[in-house]
Amino acid sequence: MGERVAFIGLGVMGYPMAGHLAAGGHEVTVYNRTASKAEAWVAEHNGKAAATPKEAAEGADFVFCCVGNDDDLRAVTIGPDGAFAGMGEGAVFIDNTTASAEVAKELHAAGQEKGIGVLDAPVSGGQAGAENGVLTVMVGGDQDAYDKAAPLIECYARMQQLMGPAGSGQLTKMVNQICIAGLVQGLAEGLHFAKRAGLDGEAVVDVISKGAAQSWQMENRYQTMLKGEFEFGFAVDWMRKDLNICLSTARQTGAKLPVAALVDQFYAQVQDMGGKRWDTSSLIALLDRKD
Questions:
Q1: What is the C-alpha R_g of the chain?
Q2: 28 closest CA partner among 14, 79, 107
């Protein structure tokens, strides 16, 4: 028997994730700020659409959410039309947004007051991972809520793990983004160097990808980086949002992130070049440009 599920936020990630829940046999009601997107989802997946997050969440055993940032998250959860107002005791809220650990703790506390479970569960794997149902999900929250939600998260995940109490999922996602930032900059510099040195970039990657330099970014982005193609994938605007969360948290914890801070400034220069919606691999465009 499928569960009664609500999904709030049908962007490039949420739309296919909600689809995987429907394909998993669950009864899904969706809400999206732009109603036409919700209507398109319903036409494709035979679910239902609601006019507000509260309406979507009413009667749901599980409410998933994937929106833009902390403010967007508060807007769809707290308040008279928010999802929490429609959720009953014992229901579980699973937030797949990449947001701050502070808002995760805030929502967890609000959920406890209402008798609902709240999990911060940001994802990694990009649009392709969402479409193929192979995301990595890092979760913060209580064990009992996670145990209830894990079978549903599995509908769109290749890997999921409870990392600790509320906020731990978001903190783990920050580690993910910090690591990626340095990796992409290193790959950009390596490919740029290869071109300037007169090497065949594809041949170089064919060799070094079989050794210690191998990474997901190298395997999946080197060809488009060499061609200067960036009109796809995880946008620079989104990466800067994530890195700003990382850097703010680092200031609070006393962590030192010199490379992440530098790469964030490189992304700011990419934005100035008109690359706000370019893929994050566009760091190479800064190096290749003719000054």
A1: 20
A2: 14
**pLDDT single digits (tens) 270-280:** 999 999 999 99
Residue 214 sits in the same domain as residue 93: no
Q: What would the two tokens of residue 239 be?
A: 């990466």
Kind and range of the H or E element at 92? strand 92-95
Mean pLDDT for 152-173 is 98
Average pLDDT over all residues of the chain: 97
The verdict on 152 and 183 lying in the same domain is no
- The set of catalytic residues is 173
pLDDT at 8: 98
Token look-up 């650990």 returns: 101
DSSP assignment string, 106-156: HHHHHHHHHT-EEEE--EESHHHHHHHT-EEEEEES-HHHHHHHHHHHTTT
Q: Does residue 291 surpass a pLDDT of 80?
A: no
Which residues, in sequence order, are CB contacts of 193 under 8 Å at separation 6+? none
- DSSP-derived 3-state class of residue 93: strand
Dist. CA 173–CA 64, nearest whole Å: 18
Same domain, 125 and 151: yes
DSSP 191-245: HHHHHHTT--HHHHHHHHTTTTT--HHHHHHHHHHHHT--SSSSBHHHHHHHHHH
User: Both 79 and 178 in a single domain?
Assistant: no
